[in-house]
Design goal:
It contains ten helices and two strands; from the N terminus they run ααβααβαααααα. It is mainly α and 267 residues long. The model is unreliable at 260-267 (pLDDT under 50).
């Protein structure tokens, strides 16, 4: 088996348990050298999905309950859905950009990201079960895969939009989420969210590293290139507060978003 064939297999698996299991298996095989060739299998336009949850556009998502227990389930379900999508986004990057003659380390990084996201989904699914809920109980938005489709033909656009905008935003918001959960006595969910937030910093770092590497290959200035791609592909503005310490740890220096820090706070 080649790595892009493994990516295609994960993307074609609709059931979350299969997607997680295959991700663990193929990540181990890649690390151990049982899979060594990249291959050229193209990914499907859309990954397979389970029958539930019902997928909606972000604008059509129903309003969520504001009760304490329901609010917690809503949060965990929403993050679980993001993490399931993130498994596919990582594998899609492996297969979609396999023809760019990038170093093996590029594929090492995105296989590792896929494995991390699979573990995150598994932790959140178990937490949902402990809260007497199941993944798929609630509608979920399809916005992440819309981002993948918009950037399918441009590796720099994909890197800017997914790890450097969407995952970086998760890094920004997680500390406040963890604080609220602990204030409400939910240390179990808070611990999961803290671990996810810590590991997402590495994902942002991978995005920045490969964005800057490919910009250098193409003779592009990374910061204005990033800002132009965000303006083209991202609806709305990058908004503070920014987790400056975590972004700096990820190698995302303030020039990437400094225009926005002047208009608000930071953490």
């Amino acid at each position: 088996m080649k790595l892009t064939e493994a990516a295609y297999a994960v993307l074609s698996s609709g059931e979350p348990c299969d997607k997680v299991r295959l991700t663990y298996d193929y990540a181990r095989m890649w690390r151990d050298g049982e899979i060594s060739a990249i291959g050229n299998t193209r990914p499907p336009d859309r990954p397979a999905r389970p029958a539930k949850p019902q997928l909606c556009s972000p604008a059509d998502m129903p309003k969520r309950s504001t009760g304490g227990g329901k609010r917690r389930v809503n949060l965990v379900h929403a993050i679980a859905h993001i993490e399931l999508n993130a498994i596919d986004l990582a594998w899609d990057a492996v297969a979609r950009f396999a023809d760019l003659d990038l170093p093996k380390a590029f594929f090492d990084d995105w296989v590792q990201v896929a494995e991390d996201e699979a573990r995150h989904f598994e932790m959140l699914e178990k937490r949902l079960n402990a809260l007497d809920a199941r993944y798929g109980d609630q509608p979920a938005h399809d916005g992440l895969w819309e981002a993948a489709l918009k950037t399918a033909d441009d590796v720099l656009a994909r890197l800017s939009l997914v790890p450097m905008v969407l995952e970086a935003r998760g890094v920004d918001t997680t500390p406040a989420t963890v604080h609220r959960l602990r204030a409400n006595g939910d240390d179990a969910t808070a611990d999961i969210m803290r671990q996810i937030g810590d590991e997402e910093v590495d994902h942002v770092a991978a995005g920045v590293r490969w964005f800057e590497y490919i910009c250098a290959l193409q003779g592009l200035d990374p910061v204005p290139t990033f800002k132009a791609l965000v303006a083209k592909h991202f609806k709305g503005q990058l908004k503070p507060p920014f987790n400056v310490a975590a972004r700096t740890q990820a190698g995302m220096h303030r020039d990437y978003y400094e225009d926005h820090t002047r208009s608000g706070g930071e953490t």
